[in-house]
Design goal:
Blueprint (H helix, E strand, L loop, with lengths): L15 H26 L4 H19 L9 H6 L3 H14 L9 H17 L11 H9 L2 H20 L4 H17 L14 H5 L1 H11 L2 E4 L1 H9 L5 E5 L5 H15 L5 E5 L12 H11 L12 H19 L3 E4 L17 H7 L4 E5 H8 L11 H4 L10 E6 L12 H11 L15 E6 L2
Parallel strand pairs: 1-7, 2-3, 2-5, 3-4, 5-6
Antiparallel strand pairs: 6-7
The structure holds 6-O-phosphono-beta-D-fructofuranose and magnesium ion (MG).
Keywords: Hydrolase, Manganese, Metal-binding
EC number: 3.1.3.-
Pfam families: ARMT1-like_dom (PF01937)
């Protein structure tokens, strides 16, 4: 079977286009500022900062001149052996058409971009472990105080009620749906899409169902029930979450994890992080530790300080996370595969990772980039079944649940006519390119494959 082509950076109807013309230069510009700020505050790092800054500025110029993308050097590969594979893939693309920054394949180049920045830092003596995106991640999380407190209150109420009575299976399923939605929209820019229910009674009520239904109109494919039925039929030992962004999204994922553990849906949760600074806001293992420290700092949030009921609710949740983390019930891993350019169809070929994920009863993939890698970032027709778009993964015995707010081109599993309708709707909302509804973050898909 011939596969559809991937998204390319020179297609004005692809979200690759604004990404390479606006987003990547903006990321580089703010990285240059952040390195400079850091080196001013940390005497002795100036020389290293200067070295990296020069490289980052050079890359900005390469974008402007649409230069050919070079192979990683021997020296760079000596520092990061995984770059060898990047070169092999680049060679394959070059055989079809010379790869330049503004015309090449989007997904591959976006991964290459973050590896390139990382290797420059790794080449220095004093900035080897510096995360150039950390200041930005922290700033964004600082502004999420109100959302964090609201979720903590909601979580506390629900978990106190859960502890009081034995919960029937229908209620558990509703709660699963609720926490899946929280984790899903934790990835979005617009959290107003979340249902506003707070108690078990609320959730079970007709009104609760109506609120959920209204919010779920934005979820174009919703396999939550299928995933729940699947999980209930397993040994219910372990759920894995392949994380996306740190800060608020990670916090929302921890709410989901705590529910799964407190309600005894499963015995443990494994969180998969990135090893290097990745796609700006992705979670590295140290971001997990940092988040716990930030939640424990009463003065951390800009907009929630001084509210004692807020700190109390945060404290309640934090205590639980810490306990589960200390006794290994919640653990973190970070396999280098997650920062390769490869599609997730390749997971069965990565022996150690495949074996590890094989122990899971449900693997939840968070966010947009994970979805792009699940579907190969190919221009599938939007009615293609999810199980076709994820190719070999569909028959890998790995149960996959993707929670994705749409922020790129590829979307699959839609009923006929939905794409066309949304293109028109998005245009009517005043947007020039109707096709960009798929990148607006306003719609979502929850897709399941039994494996
Ligand atoms: O701005 C575009 C982009 O970088 C996409 O390439 C990527 O898929 C997305 O942002 C990151 O989103 P997420 O954090 O949900 O994976
Ligand atoms: Mg991300």
């Amino acid at each position: 079977m011939t596969l559809p082509p991937p998204s390319y950076n020179d297609n004005p109807k692809s979200f690759a286009y604004p990404t390479v013309h606006k987003r990547w230069p903006a990321i580089l510009t703010s990285a240059i500022e952040d390195v400079s700020d850091y080196s001013k505050r940390n005497p002795g790092t100036e020389q290293c900062a200067e070295y990296v800054t020069e490289k980052l500025q050079g890359l900005l110029k390469e974008f402007k001149q649409d230069k050919q993308v070079r192979a990683f050097t021997k020296e760079e590969i000596a520092i990061k052996p995984e770059l060898e594979e990047y070169n092999e893939e680049l060679e394959k693309f070059n055989k079809q058409k010379v790869v330049t920054w503004l015309t090449g394949p989007w997904l591959y180049l976006e991964c290459y971009f973050y590896q390139l920045i990382d290797v420059w830092f790794k080449q220095t003596k004093k900035l080897k472990d510096f995360d150039v995106f950390e200041a930005g991640k922290t700033k964004a999380f600082k502004q999420s105080g109100a959302g964090v407190v609201e979720l903590c209150h909601r979580f506390k109420l629900l978990s106190e009620q859960l502890a009081q009575k034995s919960t029937d299976s229908t209620t558990l399923k509703l709660l699963f749906t609720e926490f899946i939605d929280i984790s899903l929209w934790g990835n979005a820019t617009d959290l107003s899409l979340l249902a506003g229910t707070t108690t078990l009674e609320d959730i079970k009520s007709l009104q609760g169902a109506e609120v959920r239904k209204k919010n779920e109109e934005k979820i174009l494919v919703n396999d939550t029930e299928k995933a729940w039925e699947h999980l209930m039929g397993t040994a219910r030992d372990r759920v894995d979450i392949v994380l996306d962004n740190s800060g608020f999204e990670l916090f929302a994922d921890l709410c989901l994890s705590l529910f799964l553990l407190d309600a005894k849906v499963v015995n443990r949760v494994v969180l998969h992080c990135k090893r290097i600074p990745w796609f700006v806001s992705d979670t590295m293992p140290k971001d997990f530790d940092l988040l716990l420290a930030q939640l424990g700092d009463e003065h951390f949030f800009d907009d929630a300080s001084g509210d004692s009921s807020g700190s109390e609710a945060i404290g309640y949740l934090l205590k639980k996370v810490k306990q589960y983390h200390q006794n290994g019930t919640i653990s973190t891993q970070s396999h280098p595969f997650w920062t390769s350019y490869a599609n997730y169809w390749d997971i069965p070929k990565v022996k150690d990772l495949y074996e590890e994920l094989g122990k899971s009863n449900l693997i939840i993939f968070k966010g947009d980039l994970n979805y792009r890698k699940l579907t190969g970032d190919l221009n599938w027709d939007t009615t293609t079944p999810f199980t076709e778009a994820i190719q070999d993964l569909a028959s890998s015995r790995l149960p996959v649940l993707s929670l994705r707010t749409c922020k790129a081109d590829v979307v699959v599993g839609l009923p006929k006519g939905v794409n066309e309708k949304l293109i028109e709707e998005y245009k009517k909302m005043g947007n020039e390119v109707g096709e960009f509804w798929t990148a607006s973050g306003k719609w979502a898909v929850i897709s399941f494959s039994r494996g």
